[in-house]
Amino acid sequence: MARKLSFLLAINEAMHQEMARDESVIVLGEDIAGGAGGSAGNDEAWGGALGATQGLKTKYPNRVLDTPISESAFIGAAVGAAAAGMRPIAELMFVDFMGVCFDQIYNQAAKFRYMFGGNAVTPVVIRTMYGAGLRAASQHSQTLYPLFAHIPGLKVVIPSNPYDAKGLLIQAIRDNDPIVFFEHKALYELEGEVPEESYTIPFGEANIVREGSDVTIVAVGRMVQQSLIAAETLAAEGISVEIVDPRTISPLDEDTIYESVENTGRLVIVDEAHPRCSFASDVGALVAQNAFHALTAPIRMVTAPHSPVPFSPSLEDLFVPSPEKIAAAVRGVMNAKAGARR
Amino acid sequence: MSGEGAAAGPDAPAGLAKLVMPKWGLSMSEGRFIGWLVEEGTDVGLGDGLAEVETDKIDGVVEATSAGTLLRRLAQPGETIPVGAPIGVIGPGDADPAVVAAWAAELQASFIPGEDGDSGPKTETLTADGRRLRFLRVGGGDGTAAQTVVLLHGFGGDLGNWLFNQEPLSSSSRQVIALDLPGHGESSKELVTGDLDELAGAVGAFLDALGIAQAHLVGHSLGGAVAIRLALTRPGLIASLALIAPAGLGAEIDGEYIDGFVAAESRRDLKPLLERLFADPEIVTRRLVDDVLRMKRIDGVTEALTAIGAATFPAGRQAHVLTADLAAAAVPVLVVWGTADQIVPPAHAGAAPVRARVEVLEGAGHSPHMERASDVNRLLDAFLGTV
Q1: Are the beta carbons of A205 and B78 separated by less than 8 Å?
Q2: What is the pLDDT of residues B344-383, one digit of tens each?
Q3: Residue B117 pLDDT more than 50?
Q4: In angstroms, rounded to a whole number, what is the distance separating the alpha carbons of residues B73 and B68?
Q5: Is residue A269 within 8 Å of A173, Cβ to Cβ?
Q6: ipTM at complex level
Q7: Is A140 a catalytic residue?
Q8: How far is C-alpha B376 from the chain's CA centre?
Q9: Which fold has domain B4-117?
Q10: Cβ A198–B298 below 8 Å, yes or no?
Q11: What is the extent of the structural domain holding A291?
């Protein structure tokens, strides 16, 4: 009934609709126009490295700025434009490249509201691809959202499906704070029901992707899809898994996580980032502090190892938390008999 | 069924019948197969529960569509299966296993899902009076249906509220159309005043745009008041009124529900309110709440609901009591009300005109067409058969 759209086209549609709605919305980044030839020549946008900005340059030639390979310059320009009243969407192709423009993000954008007594707003959205699986090696495959969640003043958004991608991106564009919006490359082809009209999803509201009674899985982005596959396998074994997708890790909907753990008594956190000082370790610590009484088994984390993303395809496949590893961790907490107190 | 592959398929050897993924509600295109409830070799009767299937909206049990022995279980737990795809084979217990195996393999190999895996009718949109309206049309055969029935949902609802009624009420001689009222679902959110006249006028313009000369209206709650108003303003257009827990028959209404529904921004706000719509609060699943939240988060919905609420239900009262108008409207009237309605008092049924048929459903809440669908369908079908 409802229309289905891919994750990639949901993001594309969100930008089209917000550019039509609000003239102050602009888009800038590398290779976001041109590239594919076509009848309109260079303006017939392929639309970014993987096509997310397709059609924007043709429709809004003066509001889509195809920049040189100069992350520090165009991210700085986006932050400055936001401070001056625009609503820029900057596409930083791979989050791995964020290092060269980090000052603009964590020392400038994230601080303006605080340092100017709440009088300054910085409505910038930085869209960026993350994650392993594309055989793109260590410098194009990382999952770096924990770096941004650590910084007060930034909001960190990680959609796991097309519906959320569109609603969260529209919310991000309308939000007055700087936002880093993480898109997993391996999700772009994922299809789902997406309303044609504009809509928003508030930040800090977790989605219960699947209801269950035995174990809570907390996961974001692509790991939600991996967890769903694991949950199907486990259901056949009689294990009922609840999957909580926080959707934004800063702000974080702690209440929904605690409520779910109160119901299940067991927690597995699935995170494609490295295990130390991460989203997974953060959620684990919060639950241990605030819902310890509800736990009947130790908390388990399923994460990538503390290692760069390997280029070897077989090693890269082992690097990413798989449905098999997630299912094994869930079986592990099911078998743990509150071992700490014998 | 759209897509010839879905309807066609290899001929069945004598006595064998296939069991397929059922279609529950118009939006279902596939189901997740949870598991079998019976072993291969079990004798099953028509309607016996054989397997569990989960969909985006509802969970349910696949019932046997023929009697015999469950010879073959084709679907595996965890599989996502398109509507209409074979999931099992039923036949005589002494059927030749080789023949069964060969036919089962042939069924699976030859199955082609409908377009998008969806074999049901699709929603359409039209523009009437400059307003986009989304609707879903079911039944009516080749378009020369003797009867047209239009379903009008309540405040904050959409055409999906008739999920359990629209198809059962339709036939080759009766087309049943559900639409999203202005400000709701995927219809235009822009309203001038949001009052009953505007909503009724939009439904009238919708019928005109479809070239429908006469329609029977079924209205729930706010949709009931809209139906009454339209019957008055366009007397020749409306042939009968079936009113389910309608607004417009008294001043009282649960104003806290109306205001709370408009203001609700989260699952926590919304769930207790939605539970008031049903006698059994268990009906309000997380998915139901999520679906309503999704609707509320579409641009313009809150403004539209605020306007409609202010015009029709200001300060916790109904602005329009239409009993005299309803008595004057020269059309047959059916009123259906649940005794456990928490939103609009069932006592308002007493204000229906004397010629009206009034049916009271013991223990049903404000949405009997959802929680007591088969009862309501039976009442509507009988009423529509006489008008």
Answers
A1: no
A2: 999 999 999 999 999 999 999 999 998 888 789 999 999 9
A3: no
A4: 14
A5: no
A6: 0.89
A7: yes
A8: 12
A9: OB fold (Dihydrolipoamide Acetyltransferase, E2P) (2.40.50)
A10: yes
A11: 207-335
